[in-house]
Amino acid sequence: MCGVEMDSLRPIGFIVVGILIELVQRPSKSAAVVKLKASAEAEISISRLDIRVALITRAQKHPDADSLYVEEIDVGESQLRTVVSGLVKYIPLEDMQNRKVCVLCNLKPATMRGIKSQAMVLAASSTDHTKVELVEPPQSVPVGERVTFPGFKGDPHDVLNPKKKVWETVQVHLHTDKELVACYKDVPFTTSAGVCKLSSISDGSIR
Length: 207
Hints:
Elements: H1 2-25, H2 29-43, E1 51-62, E2 65-74, E3 81-85, E4 99-104, E5 110-112, E6 115-117, E7 120-121, E8 123-125, E9 132-134, H3 166-171, E10 174-176, E11 182-184, E12 187-188, E13 190-191, E14 194-195, E15 205-206
Antiparallel strand pairs: 1-2, 1-4, 2-3, 4-7, 5-6, 8-9, 8-15, 10-11, 11-12, 13-14
C-alpha cells in the first residue's frame, strides 16, 4: 500500500518541483521593470549630445524680437548654421562677434519668430538668474571639435528625439563649479586643449 501511494505522488512532486524551478528562474515583473528603467537611464547621458566648439562669425538683432539675437555660426561643417539665442538682455552685441563658443548641434531645429534655429549656444546663468555668460572653450581648439566628457563614451544621436527628453534629462546636471569650469555632474567639458570655462559665474546652471 505504501509503495503504491508513493508512486502515485511522484508525478505531483515533479510538477511542484518544476513550478518552483520555473518561478526561481523567471525574473519577477518588478525586477524586469527596474532593469528596463536602468537601461533607459544608461541610454540617456551626456554622450548622446553633440556639443562642439564653434565660432560665431556674425550676430545681429532679430528683426521681429527685441530679446533675440540671430547668429551665423561655424560648427565645422561645409555651411554655417543659423542660431537664434535669447541673450540680448545679458550680452552686448559687440561681445557676440567673432567669438568661440560651445554649441549643442543635434537639437531638432525650431522656428523662433519666423527664423529657424539650427543649434543652441550654451550659456550659464547665476543662481539668481541676473547674470548670463557664454561657455567658452580654449581659444586654440579647432572649430568643429566635439566636446567630450571623460568616462562617458558613445556617439551622439544625429537629432535628439524630443519625445525622449534627452536634453531635458541631461540639462539638470549641467553646471559650473567653484573653479568656473563647465561640468556635467562632476565631469568637465573637455577639449584637446583643456576644459571649457566661464568668465565669472560659479555654481551656475548651464543651458
